[in-house]
Amino acid sequence: MLTSERKLILLDLLKQEGKIVAKTAAGLLEVSEDTIRRDLRDLAGEGLLQRVHGGALPASPAMADFAARQHIAVDDKSAIGRAAAQLIQPGQVVFIDGGTTSSHLVRHLPPHLRATVITHSPSVAVDLVAHPGIEVIMLGGRLFKHSVVGVGSATVEAIRQVRADVYFMGVCSVHPEAGLSTGDFEEAGVKRALSAVAAETIVLASPEKLATASPYQVIPLDELSGLVTMASVPAELLAPYRARGIPIHLA
């Protein structure tokens, strides 16, 4: 069997099963595990999957930069942002992550809402300039241009001085086994710090992020307080999250 043919079979297996177990794939294709691992390494280099210990998981399409992600699933992100905005209560202190879905969240905040928003995203802060009842606190740090957010030790140190009621997190990937993950090491650290000092962490996940994995884990799934996604997501895709007792808010 040609290498190209084997890789197509592996991608088809990933699509059907939602994961690749290297040992199982080696037996199926009658090749060594080293051969399968080499194929997975090549496919990961092309951005077609995410390698994990023992095999691979689907890669997230949300690994693109901020400008490119603005054009992905726009209607879904708007609906998710609207649903998430309804979860914020008057008087709360709220962390809002960077990202394109977060931008939709702040645009849907009711004009009469009075609350405090803390963010490391310049774009989120700017979107709230005209809101009459929202006090905005910006966290400093080095600007990570890919995601247009602050990162680094200064950002993490500022986060440690705050206690928030809820953190609305944006990530590249949400997976029942791999948890919440993203594509940059420092950005993952900032998200982890935000989650650690918030009473609740709610992830905003458009459907293309579900059942995928990215290189850097933020938090395990068990540390999640809620998930906001689309009502159109198939029930079987949401079943593993419901089984873990995670409240799911459907837009």
Automatic annotation (TrEMBL):
InterPro entries: Carb_Metab_HTH_regulators, DeoR-like_C, DeoR_HTH, NagB/RpiA_transferase-like, Tscrpt_reg_HTH_DeoR_CS, WH_DNA-bd_sf
Location of the HTH deoR-type domain: 3-58
GO MF term (any one): DNA binding
Keywords assigned by UniProt, alphabetized: DNA-binding, Repressor, Transcription, Transcription regulation
Keyword NAD belongs to the record: no
Gene3D superfamilies: 3.40.50.1360
SUPFAM superfamilies (UniProt xref): NagB/RpiA/CoA transferase-like (SSF100950), Winged helix' DNA-binding domain (SSF46785)
Pfam families found in the cross-reference section: DeoRC, HTH_DeoR
Protein name (record): DeoR/GlpR family DNA-binding transcription regulator
